Amino acid sequence: MSNTKSHVEANFDGLVGPTHNYAGLSGGNLASLNNKTRPSKPKLAAKEGLKKMKSLHDLGMTQGVIAPLSRPDLGKLRELGFSGDDANVLKKAAEHSPALLAACSSASSMWTANAATVSPSADTEDGRLHFTPANLVNKFHRSIEHEQTGRILKAMFADEKHFAHHKALPMSSYFGDEGAANHTRFCNEYGDHGVGFFVYGETAFDNNAPKPQRFPARQTFEASSAIARTHGLADKKVVYAQQCPDVIDAGVFHNDVIAVGNRDVLFCHEQAFLNKESVYQDLNQALGKEMKIIEVPTASVSVQDAVASYLFNSQLLTLPSGETTLVVPRECEENSRVNDYLQSLITSKKGVDKLLCFDLKQSMQNGGGPACLRLRVVLSEQERAAMNPSVLMNDSLFETLNLWVDRHYRDEIHAKDLIDPSLVRESQAALDELTQILNLGSVYDFQQTGA
Ligand code: SUG
Description:
The protein is built from 18 helices and 15 strands. The chain is an alpha/beta fold and 451 residues long. It has a single domain, classed as L-arginine/glycine Amidinotransferase, Chain A. Strand 9 and strand 10 (265-269) form a beta hairpin. Helix 4 (86-96) crosses helix 5 (98-105). 53% of the residues are buried.
């Protein structure tokens, strides 16, 4: 039995891919809709992300990198009937539907909170760490991520003795699954048997249950409960909660836009959950002690301010120094109501000791804040020793990746650039080199079939 205090929570951030662009693909995600056709800055986007990873590494956190998916997805475009060489496929797809070409070119895999749901070995029946890549069926551009994501996760966590990899859930809206964006784990020490907290937007098989009216619920109860079963979580250590349908309709397209948790702390908006009192009670009972719930009142921060500033898409971290730190995007400082609230949160000593602020504007403009960019994986010492060490951030990897970005990424991408076959060649050359840097093997289709 390993010492439960020696487990760490590692954060694996998605590296922004070379085709990062703004295409307005995500109905219900207001930032994505509002920034459609804005020129993007892939090089800057990748560097903003790397800076956050390096800063958290420097503070003593275990920080890793998840490689981007290969885009454009030429295989998917060919499957959809566009034929010929790469240039022809791109041209025909653009003529038929620029939106489809943009969907197959999206760098959306950067938001690794949506890559998978992860259950630490301390919580699972077979004592292994479980991963299920999210099917992301609600948006076409994201529904084509799970296969490659699964391959990359396997290349990072290969040892079957420690790591169990599941297939994505059935590709149906009844099982809409958006991964860790709607899943939080509570515990005392990271190595203790923790509580899996699954938040969903609707119950798909119940037509009479409350549902949002304007925007889609991207996570279903059916998906969340299937994952709790396949990961082998104990019933008494699982809590389900439904998001308030009204807040989904106000732009809260994932739970991580209105709540974040870590250890025994839940930081959330007062309008986050339906029947919140019973949700809080269920959490206390499952954890076996009183949770520290920091509930932000609407009178201090409205749902609109929460969506615009991404206050709750912060990372709530316990630093090795023991300090609880909230990692917020710059937009929180720029919103005076949110900034006032945050200052009072620190002075009130309610459970957050420090704030750290990052500029992540390139990601934020597509609806991705600090917490969207990371997938949390609790690791024991043995699991840490068994995983692929080349994906872990350190001074030298930081420098290597920055130079790699400088060599391969464009400064700017406009919608018309997605038709350019040299963007395909540049992206493939970049990712081919990246697989060597991160020691991933041949995880991309173009490395296996040339397609
Ligand atoms: O799925 N945006 C992503 C943002 C995901 C944020 N993740 C979390 N909250 N965990 C999405 O809506 C926009 C792509 C575009 O419009 O170009 C996009 O996919």
